[in-house]
Amino acid sequence: MKKALVIHPRFTLYGGGEVVGLHVCKVLQELGYGVYLACDNFDPDEADRHLGLGEVMRRCTYLPILGEFKPFLSSRFLAYQRAIYTVRLLNSIRVPRDCDFVFSTQSVFFFKPDLFNFCVAYDLADFLYAYEITSQKRSLRRLYYYPLQRLYRRYASRASQKKNFFIPLSHAIEESMKTFNYPHSPTVFPPCDMSFRRLPKEKYAVNTSRLVPSKRLEDFIEVARRLPQYNFVIIGKMSETEAALFPDYKQRLTRSLPPNAKLVEALLMDHKEVVERAKVYLYPSIETGISVSLGQAMGAGCIPVTPSIGGGAEMLDASGLGYKYRTLEEAVDIVRLALESQAPNDRPEFISDNAQIFSANSFDNKIREIVSEKMAQILS
Questions:
Q1: Which of 61, 53, 12, 10 lies closest to 35 in space, CA to CA?
Q2: How far is Cα 121 from Cα 265, in angstroms, rounded to an integer?
Q3: How many degrees, rounded to 5, is the angle at CA 354 between CA 350 and CA 355?
Q4: Do domains 2-191+360-379 and 202-358 have the same CATH topology?
Q5: CB-CB contact of 230 with 339 (8 Å)
Q6: Per-domain residue ranges for the chain?
Q7: Which of 267, 279, 291, 295 shows the shortest CA–CA distance to 334?
Q8: What is the fold of 2-191+360-379?
Q9: Buried b (16+ CB within 10 A) or exposed e, 146-183
């Protein structure tokens, strides 16, 4: 039997990345590959409970890896501790001799140089980090980060030079791939779970995400503060690594909540009905990657509201749904209008039907085509 290794080190929060990882495993299994899964948390029952993909994980062969990152020095050395941990983690992954290729589904840095690698690209933060550190104006800061930049730049260079093929999950990332001259496929939207029900809508806004600064949840909370007549709900969690990287961040969010907003610290799948009944999904992040949670909410018929830049805006452009804002003032006005909207294009049925371009079936078909085509080229 043909064999493939899927590398997805952190398998704890069951967010969008984990959905991508298991769907890649599923496609490879359907193509006749035996799949090794390198991750920290191999629990098919848990994967079934949260994602409905437990059987996919159960059919994989588990490869244990280094445990989750835990800082051991002062926070001022956190960047170096993470870099050291990342190198150790990558080195801890032992590729079985019978593997035909590697499929990296979490970070583009998790590749094995002696094999052909498919690398899912959620964003290019690591690569940009490699080239932007020296732009810091303060000379001491630049000097402090110089060795770290050399390490990141080395990995970025190796990623482009080795037998790697990138799969961008948004058009913005695809354009960056062209700029960096990385071999890549056309954009593949990530798989969004379209099993969310279209329940009768209630006039409140929701957001589901990891509790990290890049999600810009402060903006969500500020919109809630300016619309006290409506309720707002955040559902999310932090991993141990994120808690170490952003100490007190969750507490700051909690302290800033107005009376009409609440933060539920939980996994989305334990509170699906909160999304299914929400009229608006407010997604304030400007990350370039496509959001699985936003796609799920659109599948449930929620009206999407996003900034005018980033992956959320790209999803709205692709689907022809929702509303975009440029400022917080615009966000407040748009959310108010969306919560009261009776427009035909804001009907849950219309939104859900048009969100199917982000479905898991669409993702699976495109990954199947990419793998089949590339492996045929390699073997020819």
A1: 61
A2: 28
A3: 115
A4: yes
A5: yes
A6: 2-191+360-379, 202-358
A7: 279
A8: Rossmann fold (3.40.50)
A9: eebbeebbebbeebeeeebbbbbbbbbbbebbeeeebe
- 134, amino acid identity: T
What is the pLDDT tens value at each position of the chain, 380 positions in all?
899 999 998 887 777 889 999 999 999 999 999 999 998 889 999 999 888 899 999 999 999 887 665 656 555 556 667 666 676 767 777 888 899 999 989 876 677 777 888 989 887 665 555 445 444 455 666 666 666 666 666 665 555 555 789 999 888 889 888 887 888 999 999 998 788 899 999 999 999 998 999 899 999 999 999 999 999 999 998 877 788 778 889 999 999 999 999 999 988 878 999 999 999 999 999 988 888 899 999 999 999 999 999 999 999 999 999 999 999 999 999 999 999 999 999 999 999 999 998 999 999 999 999 999 999 888 77
Comparing CA positions, the residue from 318, 314, 56 lying closest to residue 175 is: 314
Model confidence pTM above 0.70: yes
Q: How far apart are CA 22 and CA 24, in angstroms?
A: 5
CA 243 – CA 255 distance, rounded (Å):
17
Q: For residues 312 and 16, give the distance between their C-alpha atoms in angstroms, rounded to a whole number.
A: 14
Pick the CATH number of 202-358 from 3.20.20.140, 3.40.50.2000, 2.30.110.10, 1.10.3860.10: 3.40.50.2000
CB 170 within 8 A of CB 187: yes
